[in-house]
Amino acid sequence: MLFFSYFKDLVGREVTVELKNDLAIRGTLHSVDQYLNIKLENTRVVDQDKYPHMLSVRNCFIRGSVVRYVQLPPEGVDVELLHDATRREARGG
Amino acid sequence: MVLGLRNFTERTGDGIGQPVLDTDNGEELMCVQPGVDIVLANRTRESHGTLYVSNKQVIWLSDVDKAKGYAVDFLSVSLHAVSTDPEAYPVPCIYTQIETDPDGYESDNSDSECSDTLDLSRIREMRLIPSDPSQLDSLFEVFCECAELNPEPNEEEGEEHEWIFSADQMVDEEEADYISQNPAHAIGQSNGDHDLAHTVLQSLRMLRRWSMTETTPIIDSVISSK
């Protein structure tokens, strides 16, 4: 559940979610569930020229399985903590 | 499972009533919303329909033409959103993106927009317009709830070991070696190690499902950003 917990800590921050269909959506992380489905608020499409019709939506639910990347705010990344956690995970396996 | 949008015509009551659901497999109706119009891709708005949301799929049935209806499984709904920006679409609506069969990708949406022959399986966007915009938020929540009831299938056991050990990108190689040579030398070993292992398996499985082929860049970026 590392990534679930990790994303939960990022709630309220601005993230950019890049989908496997190349759409990138920026917004405030509202919530994330165990399937890594992501809810964003006050979203906007990063590449507006390419996706003009999706200029902005108020609430957006993104299916976890279609997410390619989540770009995190640098200040939201505690490298030491993550490094520790991934080590523990590796050992647990 | 069929990806994408499809025609739906099975109604109860001699074909004029509610949609016929797969109740034998636990399908049940979560929400019925009359007075909903639908727009597929950039096609014209189709008026006077009723929206049925089950725990498996979204069904829109025309009130006018009883032979007309569309359905899409929640498994194919990549994204849904409340669209209220008139620049995005003139009227408030629920905007959805639909995952289509990759074989249909070579020709773009424009095909279905231009020609009258409608290939539903290629439709990648659907808008649902309730006559009363104040229903948008509750509809959105119902969609969220149902999407969460439909996680990706096929994340069965048996693949997990392969995944864990093929993911040595997760830790640098030195560390992977260290771990394999010193399996007992784990920091968290004192208590609850079993639980930890279980948690790890779960999260890895989840991660794998989350992004079947493309997990490593995320992990790489986490590690390399130090």
Automatic annotation (TrEMBL), chain A:
It comes from Macleaya cordata (Five-seeded plume-poppy). This is Sm-like protein LSM2. Component of LSM protein complexes, which are involved in RNA processing. GO terms for cellular component: catalytic step 2 spliceosome; Lsm1-7-Pat1 complex; P-body; precatalytic spliceosome; U4/U6 x U5 tri-snRNP complex; U6 snRNP. Residues 2-76 form the Sm domain. One of its GO terms (molecular function) is RNA binding. GO terms for biological process: mRNA splicing, via spliceosome. Keywords: mRNA processing, mRNA splicing, Nucleus, Ribonucleoprotein, RNA-binding, Spliceosome. Its main location: nucleus. Belongs to the snRNP Sm proteins family. CDD domains: LSm2 (cd01725). It is found in: Nucleus.
From TrEMBL, chain B:
Signal peptide: none annotated. It comes from the Eukaryota. Keywords: Cytoplasm, Nucleus. Its main location: cytoplasm. InterPro entries: ICln, ICln/Lot5/Saf5, PH-like_dom_sf. The keyword Cytoplasm applies. One of its GO terms (cellular component) is spliceosomal complex. GO terms for biological process: cell volume homeostasis; chloride transport; mRNA cis splicing, via spliceosome; spliceosomal snRNP assembly. It is found in: Cytoplasm; Nucleus. The keyword Cytoplasm applies. It holds the Pfam family Voldacs. PANTHER family: CHLORIDE CONDUCTANCE REGULATORY PROTEIN ICLN, METHYLOSOME SUBUNIT PICLN. Belongs to the pICln (TC 1.A.47) family. This is Chloride conductance regulatory protein ICln.
